């Protein structure tokens, strides 16, 4: 049976994440934490709501991840002054920031292994095709 494009994309995505998680887990980081850390390395000090939006993960899952990352000393949260129960901003600690230098190279290694043997032009074309597909779906022009 011939696999559909969607099935192939899902298979590759799953393999990429499995390979990445095997490597980052050696540093105590889960796949879920990875997505939050990636956003925070780019946008430190954003709201919990924005963190959820940028990762595409619903609020309750974000609350749990934030609690785990806080207990690990990777982030600290600032509370809303008018409602101390509500977190307004999430900030990386020095420990959380330092993980970027350790973990991003692991992700780069996974990608490099995945594209080994492909010419740069094919990699660039694959990126363009995926960007086009994403844009179509985001704009509703599927």
Protein architecture, described:
The structure is a single chain. This protein has 142 residues and is mainly alpha-helical. The protein has one domain (5-117): Winged helix-like DNA-binding domain superfamily/Winged helix DNA-binding domain (Arc Repressor Mutant, subunit A, Orthogonal Bundle), CATH 1.10.10. The protein contains six helices and two strands. Strands 1-2 form a two-stranded antiparallel sheet. β1 and β2 (87-92) form a beta hairpin. α1 (5-24) packs across α5, α2 (31-42) packs across α3 and α3 crosses α4. The longest helix is centred in the last third of the chain and has 21 residues, at 94-114. The mean pLDDT is 91.
Write the layout of secondary structure elements.
Blueprint: H1 5-24, H2 31-42, H3 48-55, H4 59-71, E1 75-79, E2 87-92, H5 94-114, H6 120-139
Antiparallel strand pairs: 1-2
Within the CATH hierarchy, at the fold level, what is the topology?
Arc Repressor Mutant, subunit A
Sheet with most strands:
2 strands, antiparallel
The global form is globular
Strand percent estimate: 5-15%
Tell me the number of structural domains: 1
Low-confidence stretches: none
Radius of gyration from CA coordinates:
18 Å
In the CATH hierarchy, the architecture is Orthogonal Bundle
**For this structure, what is the CATH homologous superfamily?**
Winged helix-like DNA-binding domain superfamily/Winged helix DNA-binding domain
Strand order, main sheet: write it out. 1-2
């Amino acid at each position: 049976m011939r696999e559909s494009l969607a099935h192939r994309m899902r298979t590759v995505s799953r393999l990429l994440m499995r390979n990445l998680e095997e490597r980052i887990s050696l540093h105590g980081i889960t796949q879920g934490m990875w997505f939050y850390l990636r956003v925070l390395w780019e946008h430190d000090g954003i709201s919990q709501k924005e963190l959820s939006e940028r990762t595409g993960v619903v609020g309750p899952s974000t609350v749990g991840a934030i609690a785990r990352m806080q207990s690990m000393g990777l982030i600290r949260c600032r509370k809303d002054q008018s409602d101390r129960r509500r977190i307004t901003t999430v900030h990386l600690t020095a420990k959380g920031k330092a993980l970027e230098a350790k973990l991003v190279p692991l992700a780069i290694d996974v990608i490099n292994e995945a594209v080994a043997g492909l010419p740069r032009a094919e990699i660039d074309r694959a990126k363009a095709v995926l960007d086009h597909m994403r844009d179509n779906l985001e704009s509703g022009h599927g």
